[in-house]
Specification:
Layout lengths: L13 E6 L2 E6 L4 H8 L5 E2 L5 E2 L12 E5 L8 E4 L10 E3 L7
Bound molecules: FE2/S2 (inorganic) cluster.
């Protein structure tokens, strides 16, 4: 299981967001991929054999980290975003593909 480095690290503000309708805390400046890895979620989307796919390249190339994001500033829009390229923001609602029933 992934863990945050805690030794000699200064973090930004702790904010709340939801991941698959579960309240979760994260630090501003982290990516949603970090949040998903730390949460223990099995993945972001399903692969060809319906196996969960998680962040792979962590640099915006593979698209294995696609999630659905609802920004509180635009609550009517559901955006497909690469979790590794999307920064944590207070109030975001994030859904992995497996939990995409919004
Ligand atoms: S992990 Fe590859 S695009 Fe996000």
């Amino acid at each position: 299981m992934a863990k945050r480095i805690t030794n000699q690290i200064t973090r930004s503000a702790l904010v709340m967001l939801t991941l698959n309708n579960q309240q979760i805390s994260a630090f501003e400046g982290e990516t949603l991929a970090t949040v998903i890895l730390l949460s223990g979620e099995p993945g972001c989307k399903l692969g060809k054999a319906d196996n969960p796919r998680g962040p792979f390249c962590n640099m915006g190339v593979c698209y294995d980290c696609l999630v659905t994001v609802i920004d509180p500033a635009s609550p009517d829009k559901r955006l497909k975003s690469r979790a590794c390229m999307t920064m944590v923001k207070a109030g975001l609602r994030v859904f992995t593909t497996q939990e995409d029933s919004i």
